[in-house]
Amino acid sequence: MTYCPHCGWPDAEPFQIVSRQHTTEGQTVWSRCTCGSLQVRVLDGACSRVVARSRPAA
Ligand SMILES: [Zn+2]
């Protein structure tokens, strides 16, 4: 289990889903953390992993 490095929110519980996009590799989910950091997740079957995240909102 991983956590947001900025605020410690668990990555397994996305605070807000921004958008979902279907790709050939599965589903890409953009979510926003409580600290304002945008996260890019890839849903691969039942697994969800954070592949990128931005800095928190100012
Ligand atoms: Zn955060």
Q: Mind explaining what this structure looks like?
A:
The chain is mainly beta. The chain has one domain (1-58). 0% of the residues lie in helices and 50% in strands. The chain has no helices and four strands. The protein has strands at residues 16-23, 26-32, 38-44, 47-53. It has a four-stranded antiparallel sheet, with no helix packed on it. A hairpin with a 5-residue loop joins β2 and β3 (38-44). The relative contact order is 0.26. Zinc ion is lined by residues 4, 6-7, 9, 33-35, 37. Zinc ion binds at residues 4, 6-7, 9, 33-35, 37.
Defining key terms:
single chain, 58 residues, mainly beta, four-stranded antiparallel beta sheet, 50% strand, binds zinc ion
Short characterization:
Helices cover 0% and strands 50% of the residues.
Q: What is the tally of helical segments?
A: 0
Quote the average pLDDT.
Answer: 91
Instruction: Please state the overall shape, judged from the principal axes of the Cα atoms.
Output: globular
Q: Structural class, from helix and strand content?
A: mainly beta
Give the percentage of residues in beta strands: over 45%
